Each structure stands twice: as structure tokens, then as C-alpha cells.
Structure prediction request, 356 residues.
Amino acid sequence: MKKIIALILILSTLGIMLCACGQKTDESLGLTFTPIQGGWSVSAFGDKREIVIPETYKGLPVTSIGERAFWYCTNLTSIEIPSSATSIGERAFGYCSSLESITIPDSVTSIGEGAFSGCYSLTSITIPDSVTSIGGYAFACAGLTSITIPDSVTSIGNCAFHSCTRLTSVTIPDSVTSIGGLAFYRTSLTSIEIPDSVTYICRDAFEGCTSLESITVGNNNPVYHSDGNCIIETLRKTLIKGCKNSVIPTDGSVTSIGDYAFESCTKLTSITIPGSVTSIGWEAFEGCTSLTSITIPDSVTYIGGHAFEYCESLTSITYTGTKAQWNDIEKGRIWNDSTGKYTIHCTDGDIKKIFS
Prediction:
């Protein structure tokens, strides 16, 4: 057994040495070429401002932009990716804070997680028709104002456009079937149109989108529908996303307010929860700093933790049941102590709470 382990270690070391020996550095191009099956993977060498990656090097094609290939190349302003490249690795251009322009060729089929995360100077990008999925944090760059998602994309990963605070509009194509967690977190989207093809939306996909005014879902979507500027999971009758203009439907199509449904909806001022609703989810209205008026029906039997945390302007709630009914509701710690005081207006009197 010891001989076998020793042999494995020798072979592993030999493989690493062969790989290192196979690397080629070209100072004039500012690139290091690492051999991979059938070609080369490239990464940065030096600190050039402008880089053109060749299609071939020493007779072999450049097929991959390696993982962390240009990570923190803060002086890089432009780069040309050849049509021979098929993949962009994880964090390949992460925190290239001066990168202003890049063209992704039609040959690229995969964009790794965090590929352009932190590219603060990158304002627009076109994803080619060859790409089928957008990885997590792939375009989490604050300067992005324009993005084109092609019909080939079927999934948008977690945090794909996280904190793109200047991104005001995006078209989700009919090919997309899933939208990951925090995919559009803290973007400046003013409207959302969910196509019929989307069958999965993570509950916090649009968390922190404080500028949202309009939410619609395709008429033939099998899982979700929209009503009153709300996204509703039809079968479960759960409101999963609302905005400042939301009016919760009163036709019985909503029986629960989902986790994070109105989280950080800072421009929401008032809301009436209809009598069909029985539960209010975790952090459902957390951070609704302008919320001054809310009506909760006596049908509600559960209010999740932090449901009204940091609702600084909300000092009173109208409750359509009695004080005894309110006290019987299963509740998490729904208020933030910094609120100071609040009053529950019940049908038989008020419940006042004061935080010291």
C-alpha cells in the first residue's frame, strides 16, 4: 500500500511538472498560455492595459479563458477574445475595475461564476446566442446600464446581476426557465416581465429592487401569474414579489404573503392584506421604511420573524380581530427594537408596545 501511495505521489508531481513545463509566456502579448486538451488556456502576464488574445498560439487554438485569468487586473481597459474560445472561467475578469469594453464571441458557450464581477467600468455587454446559462455573480458590476440576454439562455444564476444599481431595464427571453436567488438584487429595474417559460423564481430573486413599479407575468405561464403588480405562485396561492404599486387581490388567489415578498420596498407607503390571507412570511415587509399604514385581517394565524423589522415609519397596525385573537397569532420577533413604540388597533381596543 505504501508503494502504491508513493507511486501516486510521484505521478501527481510529474504531472504538475509537465504542466508547468508546458506553460508558455509571451511578454509582448501580456499572456501566459497553459496547455489543455486540444489547445491553450490563457491568463494574464504583466499589467498591460489593452490585450488581444490570438486565436492560435504555436499552432494550437486558444479555447479557454482560465479561472481567475485576469483577476484584479485593475489597469486592463480592453480585451479581445478570439472566436476560438468556448469558455470563460470562474472569476476570469473579476475586479478588472478599469475594463470598459469587451466582446464575447459567438463561440463561447459558458460564462463561469463571477466572470465579470466587480468590473465597475463596464457599462454594457452583449451575451452571444451560443451561451445557455449565466453563472452566479457573472455580471455583478455596479456600472452596468445595458445587458442583452439572448434566446439561448435557459437559466439565470444566483446573484447574476447582483447590485447592478444602474441597470433600469432587462428583457428576460422566452427561453429562460429559472431565475436564481438574488439574481437582480438591488438593481434599479422599474418593471419586470416574466415570460411563460419561467417555471422557477427564487423567492429573493428581485430583493432590494426599490424602483419597481410594474410587475407582469405571461398569460400562459403554468406556475405563476400576476395581478395588482404582484407575482403570485398560482397553485400555492403565495404572493412572492410585490412593489410600491402593489394591490393584493381580494379574489382568494392569495392566501399567504411569501418570505421577502416586499423586503426593502422603500417606496411602499400603505398596504391592505385581504381576508383570504392566513400567513405573512419571514421578513415579508422588512426594510419598508416609508410604510405608514397596514391592515392585517383576523384570518392571519402566522407572522414570520422580522416581518416588519426596520419599518421605521410604521407605528400602528389596523387589525380586524380582537386583542385576544392578535395575541393568539403565532409570531416570530416581528419588530425592530429601534422602532420605539407601536400600537395595534383591534376591534375591542388597542395594544400598545414601547421599547426601552
In short: The helical segments are 2-22, 323-328. The chain has two helices and 30 strands. The chain has a mean pLDDT of 91.
